[in-house]
Design a protein that fits this description.
This protein is an all-beta fold. The protein has 1 helix and 11 strands; from the N terminus they run ββαβββββββββ. It has one helix at 65-71; strands at residues 50-52, 58-61, 81-89, 94-101, 117-119, 127-130, 133-142, 151-161, 167-178, 195-197, 202-216. The chain starts with 49 loop residues before the first strand and ends in a 64-residue tail after the last strand.
Length: 280
C-alpha cells in the first residue's frame, strides 16, 4: 500500500503494509545501521583493532609452553597479538587484515618497533571469508625485533566477528614457532617435536592455540611498513609513517630520483596508509 499512513505500526499486523501480499516486514524501523550489528551482512568491524585475550585461550601445542614461559619470567600474556581488518568482499569471499605484536607486558599497546604484517601475506596464503568468519595466513609474523627475531612462520588465523563487532570469537591460531638457538634444549622435551623450518634454516615447534577471543580496542592500528619475507631490512619504521597524517599532501621522498610514497623502495608498503582512521 503506497499510503503508509494506513498501517505504519507493524505491531498491528505481522504482514506487509499491503496485506493482500503476505511478505516480510517492510518497516525500516528495524535498525540496519552498522553500529547495531543486528543484521547479517553488516560490516561493522573494518578499521577496528582487536587484541587477543590469552587468558581464555587453550595452548594445545607445544605442550607445557605456558608453564615454561612462566618459569623463565616471560608469561604468554606478555606477548599481545593485534589484528585489524581493512577490507572485506563478501561476494568474493575474501578479506584483508593487518597484524602485529604489542609491546611486551604493556597490555594491548602496539609496539611501534615491530613491522605490520599483511593477511593474506602473499599469493600462496589462505584467504576466505564467509558469514563473518575468516581464515587467513601469512608466511612470517614477528613477535619482537630481537636478533634473530622471535618469529612464527606460516601463521594461520581463524575466527568469527561477533554481530556487534566488539569481539572475534571461536578463534584459533596455528603456525611454526621458531626456537632460538639459546633455548633449543626445549626440543629434547619428550612432549616437543621440533622440526626444521623456514627452508631448513631454522628449528621450529608446532604452535596451535584454540578458544581464542579478541577484544576490540578504542584506537586503530598504526600501520607500519611491511617487511617482505626474505627482506634484509628489518627496520620497523619508515620515514613516511609519522609525517603523512595529511594524505592530501604526500611528503616528498628523501631521494628525489625515486618517486614517493615510500622512502625505502626496497621495502614496499603492501598496505597503503590512506585511511587515517586506522592509526592513532
Amino acid at each position: 500500500d503506497d499510503d503508509d499512513s494506513v498501517d505504519d505500526d507493524d505491531s498491528v499486523s505481522e504482514l506487509d503494509d499491503d496485506d493482500s501480499v503476505p511478505t516480510p516486514d517492510d518497516d525500516d524501523s528495524v535498525p540496519t545501521d552498522s553500529s547495531t550489528g543486528a543484521n547479517d551482512g553488516v560490516v561493522n568491524f573494518l578499521n577496528q583493532m582487536y587484541c587477543l585475550d590469552w587468558s581464555v585461550t587453550t595452548v594445545v601445542s607445544p605442550y607445557g609452553l605456558v608453564d615454561l614461559l612462566n618459569f623463565v619470567g616471560a608469561p604468554l600474556a606478555g606477548f599481545p597479538l593485534l589484528v585489524e581488518p581493512l577490507t572485506v568482499d563478501p561476494a568474493a569471499d575474501d578479506i584483508s587484515l593487518v597484524g602485529t605484536a604489542g609491546a611486551f607486558n604493556q597490555g594491548c599497546a602496539q609496539d611501534m618497533t615491530i613491522p605490520t604484517v599483511a593477511f593474506p601475506g602473499d599469493g600462496f596464503s589462505i584467504n576466505t571469508y564467509v558469514d563473518r568468519t575468516f581464515h587467513v595466513s601469512t608466511p612470517e609474523f614477528f613477535l619482537d625485533v630481537t636478533t634473530p627475531p622471535l618469529t612464527i612462520f606460516n601463521l594461520e588465523l581463524y575466527g568469527t566477528f561477533s554481530e556487534d563487532g566488539t569481539t572475534i570469537v571461536d578463534s584459533y591460531l596455528a603456525g611454526d614457532l621458531r626456537i632460538h638457538e639459546d633455548i633449543d634444549f626445549v626440543c629434547t622435551f619428550p612432549t616437543w617435536n621440533c622440526q626444521p623450518c623456514n627452508f631448513g634454516l631454522d628449528l621450529c615447534e608446532t604452535l596451535y592455540v584454540e578458544n581464542g577471543v579478541w577484544n576490540k580496542l578504542p584506537d586503530g592500528m598504526h600501520i607500519l611498513p611491511v617487511v617482505a619475507v626474505g627482506d634484509d631490512d628489518d627496520s620497523a619504521a619508515d620515514d613516511d609513517d609519522s609525517a603523512d597524517d595529511d594524505d592530501s599532501t604526500p611528503p616528498p621522498d628523501d631521494d628525489d630520483s625515486t618517486p614517493p610514497p615510500d622512502d625505502d623502495d626496497s621495502t614496499p608498503l603492501l598496505v597503503p596508509d590512506d585511511d587515517d582512521s586506522a592509526g592513532p
